[in-house]
Amino acid sequence: MRILIVDDDEDDYIILEDLLYDGIGKVGEIVWAKSFDHALELIEQSDFDFYFLDNRLGAKLGLGLIQEIKQRFNIAPPIIMLSGVDDHQTDIAAMEQGADDYLIKSQLTAPLLEHTIRYTIRDKTLEYRLAKLAHYDSLTGLYNRSIFNELLRTSLEQSSRLNQKFALVTLDLDKFKFINDNYGHPAGDQLLTKVATRLKNCIRSSDIVARLGGDEFSLILKDVKHDKDFIKLVENIIGVFDQAFQIANQHISATTSIGIAIFPNDSQTADGLASYSDMAMYQAKSAGRNTFSFYNQKLHEETKVKHQVEVALKAALQANELELFYQPINSLKNGEITSVEALLRWPNSEGGFHNTENFIAIAEESALILDIGIWVFEQACQQLQLWRQQGFNDRRISINVSANQFNSNHFTEIVTGIITKHPELSRSLVFELTERKPLENTTAIINKLNQLSDLGICFSVDDFGIGHSSISYLRAFPMNIIKIDRSITANILISKEDLALCKAIIALGKALDLAVIAEGVETDDIASKLKQLSCPSAQGYLYCRPMPVNELESWLGQHDKKVVSNL
Ligand code: C2E
Ligand code: MG
Ligand code: MG
Asked: Which of the following CATH numbers is that of domain 312-566: 3.30.1330.30, 3.20.20.450, 3.20.20.100, 3.40.50.300?
């Protein structure tokens, strides 16, 4: 412990020093400041763990040192004022200015000193711990959400007074869940700590960084003159992730998606800035991650429209206004129907339908897709049961399942529940998983897919050939079917590359013993070409458009006759 005693009377200093040694033993170094100015010098040079200040320091008052000490610390160490017996007013003033206690010089004893030191230290430790709990994130030591919100408000007031701009930056690690699942939570925690340290080191001293929870960090970048300067600062932050992180003897690479909202341009309130920088961050995520995005008005409008669509879609689901259309999948070998794909339809007020791809994408950004997914699955099961009652035991339904549906256990549990009750249905179900928004390759997700596959459900990779993970998808997940994306199928007669891709996918299917379906077949010429390439199956407007179940029934009736007569 380092103790500073400020007293201009040497005898008083020596008495205090002796009493301290008697009271607490030689616990550390005691330094004597013999005047106000000497004290100022020592206070500025280094920090002490305990301060004793005599109030009468020649013409100056020891009181004047309290603020000097306090401003050096978030929580200052104990400060004890020393005063004469008749100096009660000063004692009160000292306590008001933040001294922790006062002692009357003539009444000093060793036990009194020991007692005072022990109690003030205990109070301080408690205060320090409480402050740490209330203000700091225990894992990374950065500010936590509650203090960050206060700092954001203060920055707002300060910047508006000084007529300055600042940026609120929201930063979320990409695929942090993958790191947690694959390397374990302790590794995840280490990564967060290392990211925190690098972030702290890359910002200027006037900037603020906090961990808001999970893998989400926020920064306030102050006093930036031009918008383009924000880009430089944000690039520094992205640069934090250039080098892999050394964690438990492994190099783990991580990237981040960053959203930025600027005061006062984007909003003049703390809540507005926070929600806009969040929106911008999600925009960066959907732009493919590992990038940053600035909030702007267009983004705001888009978000508003999305919200409206989400609310209306939720209402439509609850009011049972959604429908399933079905589109047959045809064998190119014998014209048989191998399955029908269920495609969701949401009627609009003009007698048509909302664009399925659009509203599904909006639903996928919220939990709504989970309810929709369960509704689609249950509808398909009901339809299969109805067909079974009518004697059509061979009919299969392919349903589209979004990657998000596997992020919680809910969907898998519902499917397992229904299939356990009706095991006959499992062989009549195919789950189509699109490569456009891929599944995460985590043990938890692989286990869920394997569990469903063990029940007898088939899996198909939808929109194959356009994603980034085509082949690894086939290796990681229990797939049975590949569906060639329609952007490839549509071009096989005009693009050498697409023809080559189509051939390669068919060969891949053959080699891995997977069924292959070409999507989006619209013309006879394309169908003939696919037959020539020995593509096993096809689906598209050429055969028939998606339609309600009653139209499908009559189409199947005619189609069966046609197939039979053609054979
Ligand atoms: P998808 O699974 O690839 O479905 C094929 C899409 O292509 C369907 O669009 C279908 O109507 C359309 N299509 C079929 N034949 C042809 C053709 O010859 N030419 C052209 N140009 N298009 C053809 P739709 O119904 O609008 O669905 C779009 C996407 O929305 C689907 O793509 C699927 O990813 C998603 N989706 C549809 N229903 C559901 C659902 O119930 N759940 C989930 N999660 N996604 C769904
Ligand atoms: Mg599909
Ligand atoms: Mg598709």
From this structure: 3.20.20.450
